[in-house]
Amino acid sequence: MKKVYSTEILANAWNIRNVLEQHDIESVVKNENLFSVSGEVPFLECLPEVWVKPLYFARATQIIAEIENSLEDSGPDWVCNDCGESNLSNYSICWSCESSHEARPTAQ
User: Fold this and answer.
1) What would the mean pLDDT of 66-71 be, rounded to a whole number?
2) Mean pLDDT over each residue of the chain, to the nearest integer
3) With helix as H, strand as E and coil as C, how does the chain read?
4) Measured in Å, how far apart are the chain's first and last C-alpha atoms?
5) Spatial distance between the Cα atoms of 63 and 19, rounded to a whole number of angstroms
6) Residue 8: pLDDT over 70
7) Domain boundaries, the chain
């Protein structure tokens, strides 16, 4: 197995794993339970990681790069007109009330 991704946020590792699985790339999240020992073990060795078989390494790396590029190009964060919650720019619906970002009224 080869490491293709490492992050400080466990949810990000699981998101990458899920995206890879949607592309028929079997992957594993490692170090998901090491937060409790991150003072006794070097911090960088406790980060959640996503690993794939060597055969899928190049494709997985490409998919992850596409995900990261789409996050950079997604524009500014937005505030939901229905509930007032702040949402990340790559969210197309509000995380709180599930209102559509595209359904926002245009400024007049």
Assistant:
1) 81
2) 84
3) CEEEEECCCHHHHHHHHHHHHHCCCCEEEECCCCHHHCCCCCHHHHCCEEEECHHHHHHHHHHHHHHHHHHHCCCCCEECCCCCCEECCCCCECCCCCCECCCCCCCC
4) 55
5) 8
6) yes
7) 2-72, 75-108
CATH 3.30.70 fits 2-72, yes or no: yes
**Pairwise CA distance, residues 10 & 19, whole Å:** 14
Q: Nearest CA to 19 among 2, 5, 38, 35?
A: 5
Tokens of 82: 């229905």
Q: Find where tokens 């890879």 sit.
A: 20
pTM above 0.85, yes or no: no
**In contact, 6 and 16? CB cutoff 8 Å:** no
